Amino acid sequence: MIKLQIPATSANLGAGFDALGLALTYYNYVNMEEADGIFIKSLDGTPIPEDEHNLVYESAKTLFEICGRPFKGLSIEQINNIPMARGLGSSSACIIAGLFGANTLMGNPLGLDDLVNLSAQIEGHPDNTAPALLGGIVTAVFDGREVHWVKQEVFTTLKFVVVIPDFELKTEKARACLPTEISHKDAVFNLSRAALFSASLLTGKYQNLRTAVNDKLHQPYRMELIPHGNDVFETAYSLGAYAAYLSGAGPSLMAIVDADNEFFCGKMKFALEKLGLKNWKVHELHIDNTGTKLL
Ligand code: HSE
Predict the structure, then answer these.
(1) pTM of the predicted structure, to 2 decimals
(2) Which of 43, 130, 153, 194 has a C-alpha 20 to 30 A away from that of 6?
(3) 180-209: pLDDT as tens digits
(4) Residue 128: what pLDDT?
(5) 83-102: b or e for each residue (b if 16 or more CB lie within 10 Å)?
């Protein structure tokens, strides 16, 4: 039985729609071994598909087939800490667990590039799958065939404080509300900010991050689907966050906060209660530079 740890991920990072993503210190765990049939169990009570529609299973089976290896079935145990449909890369974590797990069980016939490409093909975009596999902050371009990517480790004490609403927002719905065209001016607005984000994060110029997370491609449309989302952004800035952005397709909202901002989480929870959002969760996370690993 192999044991895997797979990180949650936060994609887009404001302006880097479908291109930027980073891994976080918040993990799913998957145990996997070959078996005669399908044996899938949730170890933490999270409801998951226990048949061939389980995403970890499906992804693993795909890899066995691609490699032309005989496949009889799998025994899979999952601990799903990453909440589903909340903008924290839960489906990418399952895809990566399946691909990485199957590759390990077969003796690693495929390399990292293959896994990055396949996972992006399954998910449709690379900005959660690539950092879930690789860790750090990943810049990725999926040209429809393959992913051109760079992983950079981030050595920072910054806190990534995620506010998780008590409702789901499916990525398909959050993509369906986006415009099909934007102006040249808005394209320049976004590409300049996406570039500014990674350069600023990596060089410690955190004062730039508030400008860098502004975006005209997705956040203005998706925020309409998140009641109180703008209140959370305002609260984050009033509590001294460097930046606040919609994590992935949402509905989770991320605040980037200085390590010295000691009571940010407690103050955010208090503010959420005042807004009547006592079921929303707040977690203080950091960047995971490792990505998926065998335990
Ligand atoms: N880049 C993707 C999106 C991430 O914003 O739709 C969510 O899976």
Answers:
(1) 0.96
(2) 194
(3) 999 999 999 999 999 999 999 999 999 999
(4) 98
(5) bebbbbbbbbbbbbbbbbbb
What distance in Å separates the CA atoms of residue 78 and residue 97, rounded to the nearest whole number?
Answer: 10
Annotation: CATH topology of 159-285: Alpha-Beta Plaits (3.30.70)
Ligand 1 near 248 CB (within 6 A): yes
Low-confidence ranges of the chain (pLDDT < 70): none
Q: Whose CA is nearest to atom 5 of ligand 1?
A: 249
Nearest CA to ligand 1 atom 6: 249
DSSP 83: P
d(CA 202, CA 52): 41
CATH of domain 2-153+290-294: 3.30.230.10
Tell me if residue 31 falls in helix, strand or coil.
Answer: strand
**CB of 123 closer than 6 angstroms to any ligand 1 atom:** no
Q: Is the distance from the beta carbon of residue 222 to the nearest atom of ligand 1 less than 6 Å?
A: no
Burial letters 210-228, b for 16+ CB under 10 A, else e: bebbbbbbbbeebbebbeb
So where are the chain's domains? 2-153+290-294, 159-285
Q: Evaluate: CB of 246 within 6 angstroms of ligand 1.
A: no
Separation CA 77–CA 204 (nearest Å): 40
Amino acid at 169: L
- Is residue 10 within a helix (H) or strand (E), and if so which, with residue range? strand 2-11
- Distance in angstroms (rounded) separating the CA atoms of residues 272 and 267: 9
How many angstroms does the Cα of residue 49 sit away from the middle of ligand 1? 23
